Amino acid sequence: MNRLIGVINLDKELDHLKELTYFRCGAAVPFAGRYRLIDFALSNMMYAGILDTALFIRRKYRSLLDHLGDGRPWDLDRKRGGLFVLPPDWNDPTDTSKGDLQHVHNNLDFFKRAAGETIVHSGTQHINKVDIADAYRFHKETGADVTLIYRHVEQLEPEYGACIRLEVDEDGRVTGIHQEQDHHNIYLEIFIMDKKLYLQQAERCIAHGDSNFFRDAIQRNAGQLNIHAYRYEGYHAVINSVESYFKNSMALLDQKQYQALFQERPAHTKIKYEAPTRYLDGAEIQNSLVANGCMIGGKVENSVIFRGVQIHKGARVSNSIIMQKCVIREGAVIENVILDKDVKLPEASTLIGSAKSPYVIAKNTKM
């Protein structure tokens, strides 16, 4: 198989999760007890054998870089190829590129040197388990200029409102790209495109003063390109708001949903060596995901507990997400709450949100 080049575009994924993205980009937001949102895109590329992966980043990326390290969990710690972080600006006074096209224009060396002829371009807001190798085979068999990956959903959810939709004919050709709210073919923000065409389209868009590759090179140029659509059938969650983050996190407490995401080809993430979770006398746990390194002495139900959390005796946590190294002291009560990393709740405190609008406490808050 032709060697593929991975591109994960984070240029627009910055502050869509409000308090959870105060101090990090969206791709670095923790998910499912031990992962970050970017882990799922990187893992999909790893299973396809992609050895050259570039990240388009703009700001708020310190937390992301700490998580990624040298790329070892995704087999990207290599002497040749591997993981490349591509900022957009190199202070060239002659540069006229804008938006995510800056990343392409100002990092042409990466694309020219990468040992592959086909780009697999992805974001991180759509969590999925797309078989990229199979999608690439479809791309070659159809002779497409561009292959867009989509999922047909039976029920339209609020988070789909911002998603792009595809019109697809019986031969798999894309006949329309739009955002009509009643349409059920949700584009997963993954496309496959030959590198030569990708660079040609980027150059053309820059020359015309454009700023968004997908919109200006693909959507607005659809009549000039042979665009096909690959239909994906597996697990899919859109994380583009606090509400969608909370809802899809809570959905993983359903065993079927959890197995759909993790049973086959599980996502890889940064390895942390911590002791098993310690349960004190009197601790009660019901229908919850609990990571390692925790100390639990109170009551936990219908919640997602990340690594290193302390829940003291007499505390009660329900329908909530508690991220790394939070401390919930004796007598505290929280319900429908998201606590970001390193939040310390004092004794006998009470925080209550709603299932549709959870109460969110930003990272490092001391109360």
UniProtKB/TrEMBL annotation:
Keyword Transferase: yes
CDD domains in the cross-refs: ADP_Glucose_PP, LbH_G1P_AT_C
Domain Nucleotidyl transferase as annotated: residue spans: 17-177
Domain Glucose-1-phosphate adenylyltransferase/Bifunctional protein GlmU-like C-terminal hexapeptide, residue spans: 283-353
Source domain of life: Bacteria
GO molecular function annotation: glucose-1-phosphate adenylyltransferase activity
Keyword vocabulary terms for this entry: Glycogen biosynthesis, Nucleotidyltransferase, Transferase
Pfam families documented for this protein: Hexapep_GlmU, NTP_transferase
EC class name: transferase
EC numbers on record: 2.7.7.27
Family affiliation: Belongs to the bacterial/plant glucose-1-phosphate adenylyltransferase family.
NCBIfam families to which the protein is assigned, alphabetical: glgD
Protein name as it appears in the record: Glucose-1-phosphate adenylyltransferase subunit GlgD
